[in-house]
Amino acid sequence: MNETMKQAMLYEVEDIRIVEQPIPDPGPGEVLVKNKVSTTCGTDVKTFKRGYPLLKPPHPYGHEFSGVVAAVGPGVINFKEGDRVAVHNTAPCGHCYYCKHDQPSMCESLTFCRGSYAEYVRVPAPIVAQNMFHIPDSLSHKAASLMEPFSCAVYGIENCPIALGDVVVVNGAGPIGLMFARLAVLRGAKVLVTDMVESRLETARRLGVWKTLNLTGVEDSVAAVRSLTKGERGADIVIEATGLIQVWETSVRMARKGGFVLLFGGTKGGSVLHVDATLLHYSQITIKGVFHTTPRHVAAALELLNLGVISAEDFIQHEYPLERLEEAIREHASGSVIKNCIIYD
Predict the structure, then answer these.
(1) Taking Cα atoms as reference points, which of 206, 205, 223 lies closest to residue 215?
(2) Domain containing 142 — which CATH number?
(3) What confidence tens digit (pLDDT) does each residue in 120-163 have?
(4) So which cofactors does this thing need (predicted)?
(5) Which of 178, 256, 287, 301 has the fewest CB atoms within 10 Å, counting from its CB?
(6) Domain end marker among 271, 289, 307
(7) What span, in angstroms and rounded, lies between the C-alpha atoms of 158 and 153?
(8) What does residue 138 show for φ and ψ, rounded to 5 degrees?
(9) Where in the chain does DSSP place strands (E)?
(10) CB 7 within 8 A of CB 18
(11) What CATH code is carried by the domain that includes residue 279?
């Protein structure tokens, strides 16, 4: 095995460099994975465009991937060289206040695995123990690389009180929004997806949604959505998946009396949500924020991928070598694709 590998580093905003790094050795409980597929995501785009407050550049880049075990560290018994694996990017500590109160997505000591845009990735021991999985030959590495974002949608949808026949509006037909839409369809909802990119809405239709609504040129998105519900009363459930604060606010106004609003898309730091208190009180609307995912939902997401609930073909459009990562990220940012992927030898 070569002693060095290629790895993407983010040096500054919009400054990706592919550098040579030593291939890391796995420590106790750790696993070294030879990468097969890394996928682009909205978080990567945001980090590329505006940085990430918790990371000081230069830093490793990317967090969605799937590969093959290249080496295992001391004490690893459940994985061996050659195993095909799907790897999540975090694991909770299991010991803090939030973990003990069954809120592991709020863990105060999350372990992260960053740097998936690389030929090799060293997976920390807590992730190996909790959120790394064998994948069958029937599941492609492309599909397995979707486990991380899909687990977020699985966690989010379980927080929504969807009843059979409910009208569910999903605002945003990016990767997460489309995953939410597919899961809501499977829960028996009438799903309406809004976006401003017709190709993304076409994907939503392939995923079985009831209706799509292109908001390009629409002055009043709230009225447009309500007009598609019985008596213009609004949706039973509204899911926000854009991360734009103005869409957070319109999402609240799309819900019917007694409705439920899930605010999932991460907003820019310092964003402030303005809500009509009279509407919230007298219309008895429930608003909930949900962040990230949990180990239980990661495992569930992988099972659903094995069942073919979503396919890589619907979500991943183009393949790029690592050297063209910036091109893949910029194309994702343009909205012309759902996701792209980096392929390794």
Answers:
(1) 223
(2) 3.90.180.10
(3) 999 999 999 999 999 999 999 999 999 999 999 999 999 999 99
(4) Zn(2+)
(5) 287
(6) 289
(7) 8
(8) -75, -15
(9) 4-12, 15-22, 31-39, 59-60, 65-72, 84-87, 90-91, 111-112, 120-123, 132-134, 167-171, 190-195, 211-214, 235-240, 255-263, 286-289, 316-320, 339-343
(10) yes
(11) 3.40.50.720
Contact 337, 318 (CB under 8 A): yes
Residue 26: cis peptide before it, omega within 30 degrees of 0: no
> Contact 263/287 with Cβ under 8 angstroms?
yes
Q: Do 62 and 179 belong together in one domain?
A: no
pLDDT at 2: 67
Amino acid found at 121: V
Give me the half-sphere count of Cα atoms (radius 13 Å) on the Cβ side of residue 239: 34
- How many independent structural domains does the chain possess? 2
C-beta separation of 87 from 115 below 8 A = no
Q: Are residues 210 and 244 in the same domain?
A: yes
pLDDT at 56: 85
pTM above 0.70, yes or no: yes
Residues 44 and 116 reside in one and the same domain = yes
CA gap 163, 119 in Å, rounded: 44
Is-contact 64 39, C-beta < 8 A?
Answer: yes
121 lies in the same domain as 27: yes
Range of the domain at 110: 4-151+293-343
CA distances from residue 326 to 17, 75, 207, 268 in whole angstroms, order as listed:
9, 38, 29, 22
Length of the chain: 345
**125 and 189 in a common domain:** no
Residues 81 and 172 placed together within one structural domain of the fold: no
**Sign of the CA dihedral running 85, 91, 94, 98:** negative
Per run of 10 residues, the mean pLDDT along the chain (length 345 residues) is 89 96 97 98 91 85 97 98 98 98 98 97 98 98 98 98 98 97 98 97 98 98 98 98 97 98 92 97 98 98 98 97 98 95 94
Answer left, alpha or beta for residue 123, where phi above 0 means left and psi between -120 and 50 means alpha: beta
One-letter identity of residue 198? E
